[in-house]
Amino acid sequence: MADSSSVGPAAQEEWSSVVSAEAATRAPPPPTTITRPLLDLSGAAIGGSKEDHNPTIVLPNQSAEVSHFAIDLGGSLIKLVYFSRAQQEAKTTTTEAESNKKKLEQKRSGFLAGLRRHGGFPILGGRLHFVKFESSKLNDCLAFIKSKRLHRCSNGIEGVEALGATATAAAGKSSNSSSSPTTTMPEKNGEKNGVIKATGGGAFKYAELFKEKLGVTFDKEDEMQCLVSGANFLLRAIRDEAFTHLEGHKQFVQLDQNELFPYLLVNIGSGVSMIKVDEEGQYERVSGTNVGGGTFWGLGKLLTKCKSFDEILELSQGGDNSAVDMLVGDIYGGLDYSKIGLSASTIASSFGKVIAENKDLSDYRKEDIVLSLLRMISYNIGQVAYLNALRYGLKRIFFSGFFIRGHAYTMDTMSFAIRFWSKGDAQAMFLRHEGFLGALGAFLSYDKYGLANLTSHQCVERFPMGAPYVGGEVHGPPIRDLNEKITWMEKFMQKGIEITAPIPVSLPGTTGLGGFERPLARSGSLRSDSSAALNVGVLHLDPSLEPFPLLADPKNYEPNTVDLSDQSEREYWLRILFGNLPDLVEKAVASEGGTDDARRRGDAFARAFKAHLARLREEPAAYGKLGLANLLEMREECLREFHFHDVYMAIKERENEAALTVLPDLLAELDSLEPAARMLALIEGVLAANIFDWGSRACVELYHSGTIIEIYRMSRNKMKRPLRVDNFEAFQKKFIGSGGNEGSEKLVPHKRALLFVDNSGADVVLGMLPLARELLRRGTEVVLVANSLPAINDVTAVELPAIVAAAAKHCDTLRRAATAGGLLVDVVGDDGLTEDVAAVPVLTVVENGCGSPCIDFRQVSSELAVIAQDADLMVLEGMGRALHTNYNAHFQCDVLKLAMVKNQRLAEQLLNGSIYDCVCRYEPANYGSSALAN
Ligand SMILES: Nc1ncnc2c1ncn2[C@@H]1O[C@H](COP(=O)(O)OP(=O)(O)O)[C@@H](O)[C@H]1O
Ligand SMILES: CC(C)(COP(=O)(O)O)[C@@H](O)C(=O)NCCC(=O)O
Ligand SMILES: [Mn+2]
């Protein structure tokens, strides 16, 4: 079969001209998500009966005064970190599947009740947002807080609508025109104004003003303390937070938590603080310099008359500092001063050339001046930082503060200085949330024992759905609802700023060896609209996510198989997602009734998603380390942002129904086979049915050529061994012994199998359920692990019980096992439970904590983490879970990875094969760390 998954010419043309100027707004979280307030979880205990499915959690240390935002009022910028939670009952109608789940949960035998450590919260928690304002635009900040009601709370935890930052440009308003809040709000509707954690000099200076305008009282936190606790939190809990930036190359650093301390924190705000951090809570401000971000901004403004910081940064892109700087070569007649390792192009004296020239300010190019200034200040800070690191023997130096502005040239300059002076011994690292350390630290101080203890598997950084190009900056009024968000996307369309060519990222070559050479990232790395820098996403906090306990090497686990840092791979997958978009939008709109509203939302979704793709094309590391799993998840998240809850719902239902009609025949056919042949038929059955994948361009085109059953038959008939990867014999040996001969070695069946199911319809009904049945018959307990939220046509944990119930009508094994697992609601009544189920292995369902076609085992639901502990077999099914992710992952238990490859390129690159090839990869427990690796 030919690969039809590549993008057609028309789509290609459009794709190559998409640009990142398009921005989305932050959105309310999806109604399927119930987020929680930040809570102090210390001393938490389950209240009421332990058998309750959703027992109350008593939080003895939870203060009633937990607030929604913290503020850092600096000399130049005001930073806000605020928390949002979803409107809990935003979705008024309950689907049949959901009400089924409710009924089911009421009936459950208690098999799972004991497993829920966190009271069964759904995945995805509250969100932390990051926004900043210029200090001179305090009124904008007050208006923002007021319009989002951040200062209002009832019981300290209610009342924030979960809307993100707004964006620049189209919705832009100057500070003068923004409405100025004037009066203190009285208490109403049980809400009251809060006590807000505040840090920075403005916490003192503006305390009265905030009291007067918003009625909030500042609880002041020490600035250094906040910087340090903010830094520690980011370094401990946020993946891909720290990175190096050398010669234009950004690389995320995997920090070993045991080797983090001591480090030097260099915060470059208006001024510069250098803090030696010895351990959590132990630090000392060892130095600082008054030559900092304020100096650059202030002098830059004076010398260029530029109105904005970014404008100055951008000017520097076109500068040549040798026009104002005195270089070694200027002094040595064009020669290097090689004896002390200085090349001719090394700056001997910043601005030194100006002295001998009889020129006015206007005789110099602004670009040259600002570049000289930027280099002067960056080198100077780098040098002072290095000297302090040397003084205390510190090898790790983290730079933060908004002076850096994610600006490649600034970072390269400082990295260069550190590397040069330390002779490569010390390393400069930067932080993605560079300017928010103080505000974050202040926020953490609300909740010292809860949030502050979160670890990286409980924090998920999502793409900033709101404003991909805004990076925390707020101009104009906040966007209050979905409608406003769509309108905002439409404004971009009207303004025609959606499409321009992306800027190439190629960098000029090096200029020499020693001294303060010009770093490489001088041009081409800041977008012309200077919006590229600062890409902080929204942090989703969910204490119920946990690492999967069966990972063989959790420290080095990398979910993604395809390396998207390779440009051609990245280009390919970005194109694929772009090319699949029109069809997806059509389905999304249809899934919501095809109304005008749905159409508008569909268009807005497409625009927002394209903007993210374009953004990533331009700066792949914009939102942290990029993998294919992130791209696929981003698409689902983006759909949810625009309230498309389950795009493939109708297709899933139709396919489930069709598959269930042929299930009895299939089961009878399987039962007529000998054990060895049956096992092969089961595995081939799973692979054949994995063809029903609405995420694959090629498969979708295939569906035009026949009915579900015809395609399923065709897929089964085409199955040929050996498969592209074929460890079937090894699995069979473990499963039924050598050749399945009776009397060979005594086999101990697996105790508990986790079946990570993939797609709805034939895939789960004709593929995975018969396999589950076989395992059950052999005495293995089976857990069907399914998505928590919909993704393409993947079956979800909520949908599975009804499917199992329907299948159980045709199969006694399934019926009894599902009854024992408390899965059957509508099929078996209460008296069904009186049946002797003790002897029957249990069949149950758990959610995996994901809403993506892939699975990242660093973060799964706590329910799965607990149930996995006793599992000795995993079956990972499908391209997303077994190929795109986890193909190279090793586990502590036996693993079977089963997938049909539904993309030609992946088949070629990964398996040296072709589209529709199949993988049956069996790895016994601890494969890779044992001799079996050969
Ligand atoms: N949009 C901006 N407006 C003003 N300054 C900015 C902007 N973006 C970056 N900066 C730089 O960031 C510095 C302020 O950094 P920040 O970490 O917020 O410190 P502070 O708390 O002292 O305000 C400014 O002095 C300037 O160099
Ligand atoms: C999204 C998917 C991983 C889902 O595959 P599955 O896990 O269902 O087997 C897959 O459809 C995919 O990689 N699609 C994009 C490639 C393409 O359209 O060819
Ligand atoms: Mn799937």
UniProtKB/TrEMBL annotation:
Known InterPro entries for this protein? ARMT-1-like_metal-bd_sf (IPR036075), ARMT1-like_metal-bd (IPR002791), At2g17340_3_helix_bundle (IPR035073), ATPase_NBD (IPR043129), Type_II_PanK (IPR004567)
Bias-annotated ranges (Low complexity): 170-184
Where is region (Disordered) located? 1-37, 170-193
Matches recorded under Gene3D superfamilies: 3.30.420.40, 3.30.420.510, AF1104-like, Uncharacterised protein PF01937, DUF89, domain 3
Domain annotation Damage-control phosphatase ARMT1-like metal-binding: ranges: 596-910
Q: Keywords for this entry?
A: ATP-binding, Coenzyme A biosynthesis, Hydrolase, Manganese, Metal-binding, Nickel, Nucleotide-binding
State one Pfam family annotation: ARMT1-like_dom
Q: What is this protein called?
A: Damage-control phosphatase ARMT1-like metal-binding domain-containing protein
Question: So which cofactors does this thing need?
Answer: Mn(2+); Ni(2+)
